[in-house]
Amino acid sequence: MTKTAVVTAGTGGIGLETALGLAAAGFAVTVVGRDAERGSRAVERIRATNPAHPVRFLAADLSSLDQVRALAETIAADHAASGEPLTVLVNNVGAMFPQRQDLGGVEASFVINHLSPYLLTELLLPTLTAGAPSRIVNVTSGAVAVARRGFEAVEPSGGYYGFHWYGRAKLANLAYTLDLAVRLDGTGVSVFAADPGGAATDMTNGTLADPKIVSPALRLLWPLVRRRFERSTSGPASVAARPSIVAATDEVLTGRTGVVIGPQARPVAPFRAATDHRLAQAVHRLSQAHAP
Question: Which of 23, 27, 38, 257 could bridge to 11 as Cys pair (CB 3.0-4.6 Å)?
Fold first, then answer.
């Protein structure tokens, strides 16, 4: 039976490279994105590699939870009709904002980096379970290390600093990922986090050049901070996609779950705060409240 994969934000950057890697590994790939023209180009690029199985594009703006629900309904219905399993879901979507933005009354970074992949995953769990053995891969970030760690509210108090808020949303998603692995243990659905380490992408180009994205304390060290950002985002997306591809395909990981694949495409210890059960419970409450 054909192995199938869904890659969100798969029309460019790390997502497209992930989709190319999965197609090369023998998957029928669905790439998800907002822009139909970019989607068409992505499909053409993957098809040009002569993959063994079909590739398609599905349009969805993953900053809209209503569109996430519609996307999940489409994917679930397609797999029910075809009888083919959903083998891999890669939640690659991510975004960072230098200035605070709202999406439906919720801070945008938290919506896109956590609530959106959380909701898509939860809605597709019946399909993934029916297609087991299957894998969920959630793309994380080293930015979790500078995250504000309180999750009593969907957004912490104080000034808005895009890089730290991005890290906080990724920390929420990493805690959810590790908790989900425990929840699904024994179902045949394995759950992984993949840290790409950084690459030159649409998200990083320009955004990380604005000192307003970091806290005032780090702005005092901005020349050093900026150089570090530049080094960490100078690599090719094809290399940054390797952790996601390994998490989705490596047979060595068969039967394992709750594993973080680091930037070198090898398992690494998870960020300690993400393993805190109390933090995971707080994230769970927020997720249910804002993405029911």
Answer: 38
